[in-house]
Amino acid sequence: MTALLEQTKDARRRTRRSRISAFDSAMGWQSGWSWSNVIRTILIVIAIAIFAVPFIGVFVGAFDASPTSLQFSIIPKQFSFEPWKAAIDRGVLRFFLNSLVIVGGGLVLQIATSIAAAYAIARYRFRGAGIALGLFLLTMMLPEDVIAVPLSQVLGSIPLLGLNLRGTVFAVILPVAAWGFSTLVMAEFMRDIPKEIEEVARLDGVGEFRMLVSIVLPMSIPALGVATVFGFIMIWDQYLLPLIAANGPEDYTLTVALRGFRQDYDTGSGVLMVGSLLALLPSLIVYLLLQRSLVRGIVSGATKG
């Protein structure tokens, strides 16, 4: 038993060394001291500082009640929860909840639409497949400013139904339910799944729905991670669509409300920092949870062929 434990520990050490050496090789590190390693270290520290400074400034400013809280500082000059109380009084939690509901519903619909459309485009040959993919890609090519006025009229009166969706979360969820980027990513990944796997499954009597859910979709997890991360960020950062879909300030999302906080000088800079911190956290959390799938999806897409 002791010998087996020692062998297991040695295997773990060798695996750890191989991972470190592989990382060093990928980053261009050299063993021992060298000027190249020093320069790389300095550049990495500078890059980390550039990306970390805005996060630190927002976090510190959210707990700083001093009049000059917009000035960068590592430690709050007047640590206080007053900015949070003022932000809650201004309805920041309501705006945050509106954003969560919209991004939750919109992302679920977007991923479901992308999976279904990508499966049909990637695994079947039919007339108009290229046209269908082109229509999805139009959602990426047309600027929001171009479709803002027509979309506002459609949301005010849905054709054939006559429904007015303005002032509801559905006015923002439905327009983001289809996105060309997610469909394209999923379709390209599903297209590379070997046909032999599908043929064997069909011989075992697997139907279309089970084929998608049990075989194709589990093999497309990396692409699904990419589509989820970018889809979340796309919906969460929406500004013009929630603005034209709202009937009043109570319907605003957090991104739209931040503009109001910035223009309202009575709120103070602390309230703006609180809203900015709440706007940053969800995207950061989603990225940290799905970063492994995101990296796998990007790497697998870069190494195809």
From TrEMBL:
Membrane topology summary: Multi-pass membrane protein
Chief place of localization: membrane
Keywords, comma-separated and alphabetical: Cell membrane, Membrane, Transmembrane, Transmembrane helix, Transport
Protein name: Sugar ABC transporter permease
Transmembrane intervals: 42-63, 100-122, 129-149, 169-190, 211-236, 270-290
GO cellular component, one term: plasma membrane
InterPro entries linked to this entry: MetI-like (IPR000515), MetI-like_sf (IPR035906)
SUPFAM superfamilies reported for this sequence: MetI-like
Family according to the record: Belongs to the binding-protein-dependent transport system permease family.
GO biological processes: transmembrane transport
Species annotation: Candidatus Lumbricidiphila eiseniae
